[in-house]
Design a protein that fits this description.
This is Carboxymuconolactone decarboxylase-like domain-containing protein. Pfam families: CMD (PF02627). GO terms for molecular function: peroxiredoxin activity. It comes from Streptomyces formicae. InterPro entries: AhpD-like, AhpD_core, CMD-like. The structure is a single chain. With 157 residues, the chain is an all-alpha fold. It has a single domain, classed as AhpD-like, CATH 1.20.1290.10. Helices cover 62% and strands 0% of the residues. The protein has 7 helices and no strands. α5 (85-98) runs antiparallel to α6 (109-118). It is globular. The mean pLDDT is 94.
């Protein structure tokens, strides 16, 4: 399988990817627990059917020490006992933020309030940013049919 467009070499898409990557890099300095952004990115990527991002975030999380059990259970996090209440709140926010069109009011006040119990304002801003960016990357990769499986942990720095 080959992507419809090479988003890293096409001059237009390469600029967009560069800016998205710079925004994502800025999130590394937040006080979110390191596992949270990876779990959130993985869940949104599963929902959006972005194989490239599922591959990338699974491998990056594994490389950072995340357990295979937790990664395998992200898709069914509601029934899994391996996630903290804070992670559950972040995963719910990610799901609702990814499936905006599925709910008439977007992200519910209940989901926001639950996340706010565990994360301060800066961490909530980081979570919202992670969810926004992963959805942008997912859509970009799905649209161009970016193949998955060859990603190496840390490949993009």
């Amino acid at each position: 399988m080959q992507a419809r467009i090479d988003i890293l070499t096409n001059p237009v898409s390469a600029k967009v990817v560069k800016h998205l990557a710079a925004a994502a890099a800025g999130l590394a300095q937040t006080t979110l627990p390191p596992a949270t952004p990876e779990l959130v990115a993985l869940r949104a990527s599963q929902i959006n059917g972005c194989a490239f991002c599922v591959d990338m975030h699974t491998k990056d999380a594994t490389h950072a020490g995340e357990s295979a059990i937790r990664l395998n259970l992200v898709a069914t996090w509601r029934e899994a006992t391996v996630f903290t209440d804070a992670e559950r709140a972040a995963l719910e926010l990610a799901e609702q933020g990814t499936r905006i069109a599925d709910a008439s009011q977007g992200v519910s006040d209940e989901a926001w309030a639950e996340a706010a119990k565990y994360y301060d304002e800066d961490q909530l801003a980081a979570l919202v940013s992670v969810i926004t960016l992963i959805n942008a990357f997912n859509r970009l990769n799905v649209l161009v049919q970016q193949p998955a499986g060859d990603y190496k942990p840390g490949q993009f720095g």
